[in-house]
Design goal:
Helix content: 25-40%
Distance between the termini: 39 Å
Strand order of the largest sheet: 3-2-1-9-10
Number of helices: 10
Radius of gyration: 17 Å
Oligomer: single chain
CATH class: Alpha Beta
CATH architecture: 4-Layer Sandwich
Length: 245
């Protein structure tokens, strides 16, 4: 069984459509969406509708949750008038207006994890880590750190996104795969939409990271032309592949 895990589209239709073309070549038996469909990109509705039309199993990401229930996130921040709160209010309002109430409700209805059963053991797909959509692991983390972030699990493999940095680690007995990001990679390679394919054919899970060229300059131009309310330093990550400060 080949399972593709696609995460962190962030309203970037150019990156998403490039990945869809690559998926047709890969021939996965199942595709799971690992969260963060819409926020911070120019095409939130187009991307989220496409995921729904494809019938993929879905995991809710932290920014999907913000759109569906911003008051809870703002309450957790503790400073309703701070810079982060203002940033989230502006971007959630912009995306929610384009999505419309029905699509926002669908963002809120997604589960926090998807488990796929296999003779090789369960594959668990989460957004950040099991039980926490805002804490993930990145390419800079060693195996011990990844194992601590994942915590106790019966799964044989855990696939995630959230940090936008792709990596594969063996964390104890668990295969840990960060699938990177389709729409906003922070691996220092602009113009490469990243996702993962996991395979249990050998009687254990293995993983491949796939990086797909897309027109990142057009994606950046759309963010600016459509007036997505993100600062220049945030928009520039599309051009640099480096996370903003």
């Amino acid at each position: 069984m080949r399972v593709a895990v696609v995460t962190d589209i962030h309203g970037n239709r150019h990156a998403m459509f490039a990945v869809l073309a690559d998926l047709r070549r890969v021939g996965a038996d199942e595709v799971v969406f690992g969260g963060d469909a819409a926020l911070f990109g120019s095409r939130p509705r187009e991307c989220w509708e496409r995921v729904l039309d494809l019938g993929w199993r879905c995991v809710q990401g932290n920014t999907d949750r913000y759109i569906a229930d911003l008051p809870s996130k703002l309450a957790a921040l503790g400073d309703p008038d701070g810079a982060q709160a203002r940033f989230l209010r502006a971007n959630v309002a912009w995306a929610a207006e384009r999505l419309g109430p029905a699509l926002v409700r669908k963002l809120g209805a997604m589960p926090r994890q998807v488990s796929i059963q296999s003779p090789a053991g369960a594959l668990l797909v989460v957004h950040g880590s099991p039980g926490d959509d805002e804490t993930g692991w990145s390419s800079r983390d060693d195996e011990a750190t990844v194992a601590a972030v994942i915590g106790p699990t019966e799964a044989a493999a855990v696939a995630s996104g959230h940090t936008h940095t792709a990596m594969i680690r063996h964390a104890g007995r668990v295969l840990a795969v960060n699938c990177g990001a389709v729409g906003r990679s922070h691996d220092g390679q602009p113009g490469l939409a990243t996702y993962a394919v996991l395979d249990d054919a050998a009687g254990r899970w293995s993983a491949e990271l796939r990086r797909v060229d897309y027109d990142f300059r057009s994606a950046y131009a759309e963010v600016k032309a459509f007036g997505v309310p993100i600062p220049d330093a945030f928009a520039n990550t599309l051009l640099t592949g480096i996370a903003p400060d």
